[in-house]
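Journal club side-thread
Mid-discussion, someone asked how the predicted structure for our own chain would compare to the paper's figures. Pasting it here so we can look after the session.
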Amino acid sequence: MTWQGWVQIAIFAAIVVALVRPVGDYIARAMQGEATFLRPVLRPIERVLYRLGGIDEAVEQGWVSYALGLLLFHALGIAALYALQRLQPWLPLNPQGFDQVAPDLAFNTAVSFATNTSWQGYAGEQTLSHLTQMLGIVVQSFLSGAVGVAVAIALVRGFARHGSATIGNVWVDLTRAMLYLLLPVCIVAALFFVWQGVPQSFSGPIATKTLEGAPQLIAIGPVASQEAIKLLSGDGGGFFNANSAHPFENPTALSGMVQMLLIFLIGIALTGTFGRMVGDRRQGWALFGVMAALFLIGLVAMYGAEAHPNPALTHLGVDQATSATQPGGNMEGKEIRFGVAQSSLYATVTTASSDGAVEAMFDSFMPLGGLVAMANMMLDEVIVGGPGSGLFGILLFAIVAVFVAGLMIGRTPEYLGKKIEAAEVKMTMLALLAVPAAILGFSAVASVLPAGLAGLGNDGIHGFSEILYASTSAAATNGSAFAGLSANTPFYNLALAAAMLVGRLVVIVPVLCIAGLLAQKRRVPAGAGTLPTSGALFMGLLGGTVVVVGGLTFFPALALGPIAEHFALFP
């Protein structure tokens, strides 16, 4: 560890904290149709979109209609992206002359980006045309990011309203999330990336020669526009196979810092939105405090694991100390221009969110570093999470926390003046158990079937970690990978697609049901037995609930993978 690395981390943390309230307030105003500085420009466009879609923005929906709209939205998105990949050879903007994508890979990719997962079983610059990248991948990144924001806002309305049969209009929420939030930020971010040196072109590959004189093709394309939305929306899929480790996606240290801020921007800001919409900003800061504490714990563990020498290499006499001529620590799989500190920070950011973008090879991280990455995802995206998913994820755990507190004192639990009863708890547990069931179930099956074992790049402990990471990444809608696993096979393409659908749809439908149930309830006044939910006591209870639930669920699997591998490093 170096002081320069800690300064970089401190700067990132300070900017994140400073963004919570202003961006959170903007999201609240935009999603509620209130005045914002962009409204005079965008409101006429919004009206036209409603008119073209036959949408009456004044008509709201109950949770069932809202959920059915989102399910239909996902189905259409999957079908559209699948068709684009299969019809690719006969469509324009294909200067590379790419053939159609195989059916199982096309289905996996379509599900991946429609569910905000961004798992990629292909090399983007060698598989997808410019049209498929733009009209397929980029569009689904916008749409899936908007879905997460819409679901989070619907759940917040459930807490904020009382005696209401509706939680909003799904089509209005999706429109406002894209028009007022995702699109403006992405325009600015794309221009910034072009300034930093990220390509934005319709041209095909550039023919050149290496220093040795051998011919080489350098892929370029509409990269900057895809880079902006992949980070902001939590979709994370790269134009290039190397993702943000590629110099065309992440050319400078400054671009890397901005990328991390974009990944966290909406997730952390929605805690401020929550506080504003429920009428008590302290509630939002309490959720943010728990997220921040869990993030910092993971970051310190990740940085510590990667900054220390590899014990196996130390035993062989390899010099891994930090000096004027070498950065020290575990530099395998890391970009020299970024180093251990930024690589550790980026890895923690991208797995604490649901983004999945990478600027280092996770398969080469130390076992404890890989454990942190997995643990971040296993906690159901509550450490900031993706746009919207982090907020409704931690609110699910908040319901569990107040339920446990109610059991301790023999009182019906309450949260923000709403009684938490059997129906809400059942839906909460369904949502929270769906992801672990998909992760552990898929890992178990893939670890014994020949089709699952055939994709391993490593035998033994690390091979199991590769399978566990893949299932975790898919079910947690993250999309990053221990890339030693060859997952572009019919078994993995179809199985991981199923895990993505479970991790997305079997979570958001119960969340919307909870929103509908809470919106119908009247607020009850706080009494002597009411647990305050904006102070340190509740924050500790909430953080403890997240850690204990995650620990009890996943510790056996982690013990068989990264924990066992860590101890195996010592002779």
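Post-session note: The mean pLDDT is 90.
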